[in-house]
Amino acid sequence: MENNVVIKNGVGTMSAAELVSIKQQMNHKALVRRRTKMALRLAANVMVGAVILLPLLYAISIAFMPSNELYTLDMNLLPKKPTFQNFIDAFKNVPLLRFIGNSFLVASLITVGQIITCSLAAFAFSFLDFKGKGVLFMVVMATMMVPGEATIISNYLTMSQLKMLDTYQVLIIPYLTSATGIFLFRQFYMTFPISLYESAKLDGCTNLKFIVKILLPLTKSSIGAMAIYTFINAWNMYMWPLLVTGSSNMRTVQIGISMLDSIDSQSVTMMIAGVVMIIIPSISIFIIGQKQLIRGMFSGAVKG
Protein backbone atom coordinates (compact mmCIF):
# COMPACT_ATOMS: atom_id res chain seq x y z
CA MET A 1 0.00 0.00 0.00
CA GLU A 2 2.97 2.34 0.56
CA ASN A 3 3.88 2.19 -3.13
CA ASN A 4 0.35 2.98 -4.28
CA VAL A 5 -1.14 6.45 -4.39
CA VAL A 6 -4.85 6.98 -4.82
CA ILE A 7 -5.71 9.63 -7.39
CA LYS A 8 -8.04 12.23 -5.96
CA ASN A 9 -10.58 11.99 -8.76
CA GLY A 10 -11.16 8.35 -7.91
CA VAL A 11 -10.36 6.98 -11.35
CA GLY A 12 -7.79 4.51 -10.09
CA THR A 13 -4.49 4.04 -8.33
CA MET A 14 -0.92 4.65 -9.50
CA SER A 15 2.39 3.62 -8.01
CA ALA A 16 4.93 6.13 -6.79
CA ALA A 17 7.43 4.90 -9.38
CA GLU A 18 4.97 5.63 -12.17
CA LEU A 19 4.37 9.11 -10.81
CA VAL A 20 8.13 9.75 -10.70
CA SER A 21 8.45 8.49 -14.27
CA ILE A 22 5.65 10.76 -15.50
CA LYS A 23 7.19 13.71 -13.67
CA GLN A 24 10.59 13.03 -15.25
CA GLN A 25 9.00 12.83 -18.70
CA MET A 26 7.25 16.15 -18.13
CA ASN A 27 10.48 17.76 -16.93
CA HIS A 28 12.33 16.37 -19.95
CA LYS A 29 9.72 17.76 -22.33
CA ALA A 30 9.87 21.15 -20.63
CA LEU A 31 13.67 21.11 -20.87
CA VAL A 32 13.50 20.21 -24.57
CA ARG A 33 11.05 23.06 -25.19
CA ARG A 34 13.28 25.55 -23.39
CA ARG A 35 16.37 24.41 -25.28
CA THR A 36 14.47 24.52 -28.58
CA LYS A 37 13.30 28.08 -27.90
CA MET A 38 16.82 29.10 -26.91
CA ALA A 39 18.28 27.52 -30.06
CA LEU A 40 15.70 29.28 -32.26
CA ARG A 41 16.43 32.63 -30.59
CA LEU A 42 20.17 32.10 -30.99
CA ALA A 43 19.74 31.20 -34.65
CA ALA A 44 17.56 34.26 -35.23
CA ASN A 45 20.12 36.51 -33.50
CA VAL A 46 22.93 35.03 -35.58
CA MET A 47 20.99 35.60 -38.80
CA VAL A 48 20.09 39.18 -37.91
CA GLY A 49 23.64 39.86 -36.76
CA ALA A 50 25.04 38.45 -39.99
CA VAL A 51 22.76 40.70 -42.05
CA ILE A 52 23.70 43.78 -39.99
CA LEU A 53 27.43 43.02 -40.07
CA LEU A 54 27.51 41.98 -43.72
CA PRO A 55 28.55 45.45 -45.04
CA LEU A 56 31.34 45.68 -42.46
CA LEU A 57 32.56 42.15 -43.14
CA TYR A 58 32.49 42.77 -46.89
CA ALA A 59 34.44 46.03 -46.40
CA ILE A 60 37.10 44.11 -44.45
CA SER A 61 37.22 41.56 -47.27
CA ILE A 62 37.67 44.32 -49.88
CA ALA A 63 40.45 45.86 -47.79
CA PHE A 64 42.52 42.69 -48.25
CA MET A 65 41.53 42.26 -51.91
CA PRO A 66 43.75 43.30 -54.86
CA SER A 67 42.13 45.81 -57.22
CA ASN A 68 42.07 43.37 -60.12
CA GLU A 69 39.87 41.00 -58.10
CA LEU A 70 37.35 43.73 -57.29
CA TYR A 71 36.82 44.97 -60.85
CA THR A 72 35.60 41.71 -62.34
CA LEU A 73 32.26 40.29 -63.34
CA ASP A 74 32.61 37.58 -60.72
CA MET A 75 31.12 38.11 -57.29
CA ASN A 76 34.20 37.85 -55.11
CA LEU A 77 33.05 37.94 -51.52
CA LEU A 78 36.43 36.78 -50.22
CA PRO A 79 39.86 37.72 -51.56
CA LYS A 80 41.53 34.93 -53.53
CA LYS A 81 44.97 36.37 -52.87
CA PRO A 82 44.81 38.42 -49.63
CA THR A 83 47.28 41.28 -49.47
CA PHE A 84 48.31 44.04 -47.05
CA GLN A 85 49.35 46.32 -49.89
CA ASN A 86 46.16 48.37 -49.64
CA PHE A 87 46.96 49.29 -46.03
CA ILE A 88 50.56 50.11 -46.94
CA ASP A 89 49.42 52.33 -49.81
CA ALA A 90 46.95 54.13 -47.54
CA PHE A 91 49.76 55.05 -45.12
CA LYS A 92 52.01 56.13 -48.00
CA ASN A 93 49.51 58.38 -49.77
CA VAL A 94 48.19 60.34 -46.77
CA PRO A 95 49.58 60.97 -43.25
CA LEU A 96 47.08 58.57 -41.74
CA LEU A 97 48.95 58.19 -38.45
CA ARG A 98 48.84 61.97 -38.02
CA PHE A 99 45.10 62.00 -38.65
CA ILE A 100 44.52 59.17 -36.17
CA GLY A 101 46.67 60.92 -33.56
CA ASN A 102 44.77 64.19 -34.02
CA SER A 103 41.41 62.49 -33.66
CA PHE A 104 42.53 60.52 -30.62
CA LEU A 105 43.86 63.66 -28.91
CA VAL A 106 40.78 65.73 -29.71
CA ALA A 107 38.32 62.98 -28.74
CA SER A 108 40.15 62.24 -25.48
CA LEU A 109 40.30 65.88 -24.37
CA ILE A 110 36.66 66.46 -25.29
CA THR A 111 35.68 63.37 -23.30
CA VAL A 112 37.60 64.47 -20.20
CA GLY A 113 36.30 68.02 -20.52
CA GLN A 114 32.68 66.95 -20.79
CA ILE A 115 32.94 64.62 -17.81
CA ILE A 116 34.31 67.46 -15.67
CA THR A 117 31.95 70.24 -16.79
CA CYS A 118 28.83 68.08 -16.97
CA SER A 119 29.39 66.56 -13.53
CA LEU A 120 29.88 70.02 -11.99
CA ALA A 121 26.78 71.44 -13.67
CA ALA A 122 24.71 68.39 -12.74
CA PHE A 123 25.82 68.74 -9.12
CA ALA A 124 24.59 72.34 -9.07
CA PHE A 125 21.21 71.38 -10.56
CA SER A 126 20.81 68.42 -8.18
CA PHE A 127 22.07 69.57 -4.77
CA LEU A 128 22.37 73.35 -4.75
CA ASP A 129 19.39 75.63 -4.20
CA PHE A 130 19.56 78.93 -6.05
CA LYS A 131 17.11 81.30 -7.67
CA GLY A 132 16.05 80.37 -11.21
CA LYS A 133 17.49 76.86 -11.07
CA GLY A 134 14.47 75.30 -12.76
CA VAL A 135 14.36 77.91 -15.53
CA LEU A 136 18.09 77.61 -16.16
CA PHE A 137 17.86 73.84 -16.38
CA MET A 138 15.02 74.15 -18.88
CA VAL A 139 17.15 76.50 -20.98
CA VAL A 140 20.02 73.99 -20.92
CA MET A 141 17.70 71.18 -21.98
CA ALA A 142 16.21 73.38 -24.71
CA THR A 143 19.63 73.58 -26.36
CA MET A 144 19.29 69.87 -27.18
CA MET A 145 16.58 70.80 -29.69
CA VAL A 146 18.86 73.19 -31.56
CA PRO A 147 20.67 71.39 -34.42
CA GLY A 148 24.40 71.89 -34.66
CA GLU A 149 24.07 73.20 -38.21
CA ALA A 150 22.10 76.19 -36.89
CA THR A 151 25.02 77.42 -34.78
CA ILE A 152 27.99 76.32 -36.85
CA ILE A 153 28.36 79.65 -38.71
CA SER A 154 28.18 81.78 -35.56
CA ASN A 155 30.69 79.47 -33.85
CA TYR A 156 32.98 79.72 -36.84
CA LEU A 157 32.86 83.53 -36.81
CA THR A 158 33.55 83.58 -33.07
CA MET A 159 36.56 81.30 -33.41
CA SER A 160 37.79 83.30 -36.37
CA GLN A 161 37.73 86.52 -34.34
CA LEU A 162 39.63 84.74 -31.56
CA LYS A 163 42.31 83.66 -34.08
CA MET A 164 41.82 79.99 -33.25
CA LEU A 165 41.19 78.55 -36.70
CA ASP A 166 43.31 75.56 -37.71
CA THR A 167 44.34 74.80 -34.14
CA TYR A 168 43.54 72.12 -31.58
CA GLN A 169 41.67 74.69 -29.51
CA VAL A 170 39.05 75.25 -32.20
CA LEU A 171 38.40 71.52 -32.37
CA ILE A 172 38.10 71.05 -28.62
CA ILE A 173 36.73 74.16 -26.88
CA PRO A 174 33.24 74.28 -28.50
CA TYR A 175 32.56 70.70 -27.35
CA LEU A 176 33.80 70.83 -23.76
CA THR A 177 30.25 70.53 -22.41
CA SER A 178 26.91 69.15 -23.56
CA ALA A 179 23.32 69.26 -22.42
CA THR A 180 23.05 65.50 -22.85
CA GLY A 181 25.87 64.92 -20.38
CA ILE A 182 24.40 67.34 -17.86
CA PHE A 183 21.05 65.58 -18.09
CA LEU A 184 22.63 62.14 -17.73
CA PHE A 185 24.62 63.06 -14.62
CA ARG A 186 21.73 64.99 -13.08
CA GLN A 187 19.37 62.05 -13.44
CA PHE A 188 21.87 59.83 -11.66
CA TYR A 189 22.55 62.39 -8.92
CA MET A 190 18.81 62.67 -8.29
CA THR A 191 18.80 59.07 -7.08
CA PHE A 192 20.90 60.13 -4.07
CA PRO A 193 19.05 61.56 -1.05
CA ILE A 194 19.70 65.20 -0.27
CA SER A 195 20.56 64.09 3.27
CA LEU A 196 23.81 62.65 1.90
CA TYR A 197 24.90 66.12 0.83
CA GLU A 198 23.66 67.74 4.04
CA SER A 199 25.56 65.22 6.17
CA ALA A 200 28.74 65.86 4.22
CA LYS A 201 28.33 69.62 4.69
CA LEU A 202 27.87 69.16 8.43
CA ASP A 203 31.14 67.23 8.51
CA GLY A 204 32.91 70.18 6.90
CA CYS A 205 33.07 68.73 3.37
CA THR A 206 33.30 71.35 0.63
CA ASN A 207 31.29 71.08 -2.58
CA LEU A 208 34.31 70.15 -4.68
CA LYS A 209 35.46 67.57 -2.15
CA PHE A 210 31.93 66.14 -2.01
CA ILE A 211 31.96 65.71 -5.80
CA VAL A 212 35.44 64.16 -5.97
CA LYS A 213 35.30 61.96 -2.86
CA ILE A 214 31.65 60.90 -2.80
CA LEU A 215 29.73 61.52 -6.02
CA LEU A 216 32.27 60.50 -8.65
CA PRO A 217 33.14 57.12 -7.05
CA LEU A 218 29.42 56.35 -6.85
CA THR A 219 28.79 57.33 -10.46
CA LYS A 220 31.32 55.13 -12.24
CA SER A 221 28.64 53.61 -14.46
CA SER A 222 27.45 57.04 -15.62
CA ILE A 223 31.02 58.22 -16.16
CA GLY A 224 31.78 55.14 -18.25
CA ALA A 225 28.66 55.58 -20.35
CA MET A 226 29.37 59.28 -20.83
CA ALA A 227 32.99 58.60 -21.78
CA ILE A 228 32.10 56.00 -24.41
CA TYR A 229 29.28 58.06 -25.90
CA THR A 230 31.34 61.26 -26.02
CA PHE A 231 34.49 59.65 -27.40
CA ILE A 232 32.65 57.96 -30.27
CA ASN A 233 30.81 61.16 -31.17
CA ALA A 234 34.01 63.21 -31.06
CA TRP A 235 35.88 60.59 -33.11
CA ASN A 236 33.19 60.70 -35.82
CA MET A 237 32.97 64.51 -36.10
CA TYR A 238 33.08 65.65 -39.72
CA MET A 239 31.40 68.98 -40.46
CA TRP A 240 33.11 71.15 -37.81
CA PRO A 241 36.68 69.86 -38.42
CA LEU A 242 36.14 70.24 -42.18
CA LEU A 243 35.16 73.88 -41.71
CA VAL A 244 37.79 75.05 -39.22
CA THR A 245 40.91 73.14 -40.31
CA GLY A 246 42.85 73.77 -43.50
CA SER A 247 46.23 72.06 -43.11
CA SER A 248 47.06 68.37 -43.13
CA ASN A 249 48.68 68.69 -39.72
CA MET A 250 45.35 69.58 -38.11
CA ARG A 251 43.04 67.30 -40.08
CA THR A 252 41.13 64.69 -38.11
CA VAL A 253 40.79 61.16 -39.36
CA GLN A 254 37.26 61.56 -40.75
CA ILE A 255 38.42 64.45 -42.96
CA GLY A 256 41.78 62.98 -43.85
CA ILE A 257 40.37 59.68 -45.01
CA SER A 258 38.42 61.45 -47.76
CA MET A 259 41.76 62.51 -49.25
CA LEU A 260 42.32 58.89 -50.32
CA ASP A 261 39.42 59.23 -52.74
CA SER A 262 40.88 62.30 -54.43
CA ILE A 263 44.34 60.79 -54.90
CA ASP A 264 43.33 57.80 -56.99
CA SER A 265 39.65 57.46 -57.76
CA GLN A 266 40.17 53.94 -59.10
CA SER A 267 41.81 52.60 -55.94
CA VAL A 268 38.64 51.73 -54.04
CA THR A 269 40.38 48.91 -52.19
CA MET A 270 42.95 51.34 -50.77
CA MET A 271 40.23 53.73 -49.63
CA ILE A 272 38.27 50.90 -47.99
CA ALA A 273 41.45 49.78 -46.23
CA GLY A 274 41.80 53.26 -44.77
CA VAL A 275 38.16 53.28 -43.69
CA VAL A 276 38.56 49.92 -41.97
CA MET A 277 41.54 51.22 -40.01
CA ILE A 278 39.75 54.32 -38.75
CA ILE A 279 36.61 52.50 -37.60
CA ILE A 280 38.55 49.94 -35.58
CA PRO A 281 39.09 52.26 -32.54
CA SER A 282 35.45 53.34 -32.25
CA ILE A 283 34.12 49.81 -32.74
CA SER A 284 36.60 48.41 -30.23
CA ILE A 285 35.64 50.98 -27.60
CA PHE A 286 31.95 50.29 -28.18
CA ILE A 287 32.38 46.51 -27.92
CA ILE A 288 34.48 46.76 -24.76
CA GLY A 289 32.19 49.25 -23.05
CA GLN A 290 28.75 48.35 -24.37
CA LYS A 291 27.60 46.87 -21.05
CA GLN A 292 28.90 49.90 -19.20
CA LEU A 293 27.15 52.17 -21.71
CA ILE A 294 23.79 50.44 -21.30
CA ARG A 295 24.13 50.30 -17.50
CA GLY A 296 25.01 53.96 -17.33
CA MET A 297 22.20 55.07 -19.62
CA PHE A 298 19.59 53.33 -17.46
CA SER A 299 21.22 53.89 -14.06
CA GLY A 300 19.23 57.07 -13.42
CA ALA A 301 16.03 55.96 -15.11
CA VAL A 302 14.43 54.75 -11.88
CA LYS A 303 14.62 56.83 -8.75
CA GLY A 304 14.70 55.10 -5.40
Secondary-structure element pattern, one letter each: EEHHHHHHHHHHHHHHH
- The percent of residues in helical segments reads over 70%
Radius of gyration: 29 Å
The neighbouring-strand order within the major sheet is: 1-2
Alpha carbon gap, first and last residue: 57 Å
Poorly predicted tracts of residues: 1-11
CATH-defined superfamily of the largest domain: MetI-like
Estimate the mean pLDDT confidence.
Answer: 83
Secondary-structure class:
mainly alpha
Overall body shape: flat
Describe this structure in words.
There is one protein chain. The chain has helices spanning 16-63, 67-70, 85-93, 96-127, 133-142, 148-161, 168-172, 179-189, 194-202, 207-218, 220-235, 239-244, 253-256, 259-263, 268-298; strands at 4-6, 13-15. By secondary structure, it is mostly helical. It has two domains: 4-63; 87-298, MetI-like (MetI-like fold), CATH 1.10.3720. Helix 3 (85-93) crosses helix 15 and helix 11 packs antiparallel against helix 15 (268-298).
What's the short story on this structure?
The protein has 304 residues and is mainly alpha-helical. The protein has 2 domains: 4-63; 87-298, MetI-like fold, CATH 1.10.3720.
